[in-house]
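Help needed: design a sequence for this.
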């Protein structure tokens, strides 16, 4: 009989004990069975507790039926965002770990019924698309699983920005100018067709003609190949041709390779002659003439001269007034030779061959001894002149002279 009563009591205790273990737990106080001592005061204390209680935590997760969750907890806790919260009356936890008698234990379905909310730290752990929200009361360090919900979808990593476009490279300018020496009023041809762009193409070229004073006398932009432009120099002096190249991305550049100098010279200049002429009849003359020389090109020029041939000595020829026209050929840089016609007007005795007015044929040769053409210069010349009707007596009535010719 006693045996039956004892067995009945044991079975009853097991049933009551099992029912209690699976029932909800209502908490009104904290700290009777702390998981960690001393109480937590900061996030750093919580991190220290987790570091020191790894084995207990692993055991507790297993007892709570979440052994796989502990691995995710270990991986994510060091980077978890931990916040301070108030855990209020009636709030629940799915389970809470605590220690009693040195062993880790688990309370299930915990509800807080304390008079005041308690201070806790809260953080999240995500696993398999679910979010596990943990709270840890500061007073006891007991780790509790507050709730489980759906984890938010992970943010997609922002697509990396496209690499910056490479910086535009400047175009490369090339310029040729022809001719490099010319007369005023002639055209200059500027050619920038050899310009290139390493990362695109040439969009336009601006040509400028700049006079010796630095003023732009002509400017033109060419917006299509072959980037060639003609310009006219209105005066004389050293002009500059400058090209500015722009590529298809707007970069503009000029350079020493895109600037060339051209020499523009006058077509004409005033001249003055002084010389000594002899007529072997005999008669000696002083030659004084002024005039103008006009260059058709670098090799040929036309001269117009007027002046007088007063007599110096002799009595067999009267002095005269002359007007002469010559065509000269220039060669070997400094030499010239030419032929022309002239008029000899005199008030001498028209019945004497040595003293009558006449039309002359003139030849001259010379060399420039100072200066450059189209600028101030000095030449030495030899000239012979004879009336067309006196060629047979050129040795007697011809006039031969030497002199200096000045160009201004």
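Sure. Designed sequence:
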């Amino acid at each position: 009989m006693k045996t039956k009563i004892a067995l009945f009591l044991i079975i009853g205790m097991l049933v009551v004990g099992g029912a209690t273990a699976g029932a909800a737990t209502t908490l009104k106080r904290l700290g009777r069975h702390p998981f960690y001592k001393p109480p937590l005061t900061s996030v750093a204390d919580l991190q220290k507790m987790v570091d020191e209680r790894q084995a207990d935590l692993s055991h507790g997760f297993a007892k709570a039926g979440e052994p796989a969750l502990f691995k995710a907890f270990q991986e994510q806790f060091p980077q978890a965002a931990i916040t301070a919260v108030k855990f209020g009356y009636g709030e629940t936890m799915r389970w809470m770990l605590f220690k009693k008698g040195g062993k880790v234990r688990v309370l299930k379905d915990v509800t807080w019924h304390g008079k005041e909310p308690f201070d806790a730290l809260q953080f999240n752990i995500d696993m398999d698309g679910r979010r596990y929200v943990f709270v840890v009361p500061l007073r006891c360090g007991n780790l509790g699983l507050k709730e489980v919900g759906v984890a938010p979808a992970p943010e997609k990593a922002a697509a990396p920005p496209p690499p910056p476009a490479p910086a535009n490279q400047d175009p490369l300018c090339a310029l040729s100018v022809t001719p490099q020496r010319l007369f005023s009023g002639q055209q200059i041809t500027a050619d920038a067709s050899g310009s290139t762009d390493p990362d695109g193409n040439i969009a336009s070229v601006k040509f400028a003609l700049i006079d010796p004073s630095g003023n732009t006398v002509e400017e033109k932009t060419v917006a299509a190949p072959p980037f060639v432009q003609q310009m006219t120099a209105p005066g004389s002096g050293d002009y500059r041709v400058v090209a500015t190249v722009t590529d298809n991305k707007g970069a503009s550049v000029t350079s020493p390779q895109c600037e060339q100098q051209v020499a523009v010279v006058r077509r004409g200049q005033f001249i003055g002659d002084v010389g000594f002429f002899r007529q072997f009849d005999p008669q000696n003359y002083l030659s004084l003439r002024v005039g103008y020389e006009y260059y058709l090109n670098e090799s040929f020029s036309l001269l117009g001269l007027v002046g007088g041939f007063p007599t110096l000595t002799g009595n067999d020829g009267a002095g005269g007034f002359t007007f002469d026209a010559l065509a000269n050929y220039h060669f070997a840089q400094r030499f010239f030779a030419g032929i022309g016609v002239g008029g000899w007007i005199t008030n001498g005795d028209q019945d004497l061959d040595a003293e009558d007015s006449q039309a002359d044929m003139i030849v001259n040769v010379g060399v420039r001894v100072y200066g450059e053409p189209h600028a101030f210069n000095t030449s030495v010349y030899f000239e012979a002149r004879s009336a067309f009707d006196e060629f047979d007596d050129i040795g007697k009535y011809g006039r031969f002279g030497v002199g200096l010719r000045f160009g201004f």
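Confidence is low (pLDDT under 50) at residues 3-22.
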